[in-house]
Amino acid sequence: MSRFPGQSYAREQVTEATLAASELLEVLWGRGQETARSAQVSTSQLRALLVIEEHEGTNLRALADELGSRPPAVSRLCDRLEALGLAERCQSATSRREVELRLSLRGRAFLEEYRAARTGEVAAIVARMDPAQVADLASGLAAFRRAAALHRTAQEAKGGRPVAGRRRFGADSADTA
Q: What global pTM score does this model have?
């Protein structure tokens, strides 16, 4: 019995290959996070940092929506990011009742270090591929990103929560680590 009902065999194979690749990337990202240990950062904290970077000045409610979590849990997550010196809460310029979230200089440095480690891992793998495979991979990933953007737009148009897949990050529910 297929795990993906309604899909053709070729699409089912691509879905399986994409899932396998995403699991491999998660392992590689974990290595990148281990390498960039200038600060002890959980997966949820990392996702929050990436969202804050993407949406500089976001508020807690918008961050909670983006992470698929509840504002109280996200507030505690931001408390920990502030304690680590990676993010800052600032009063909004447009509303005195609202707080904006921004990366600190240390937070920016952490993300640069983290990305450098991830880049090294991926570059080492891509270096083992022949040029035609690299071109095919680049083309396929570009098509996948376009399809993900369309899917996100469709989900948001239905009134659902934002779907993961913005420029750099994927988000699911925030844990309290």
A: 0.70
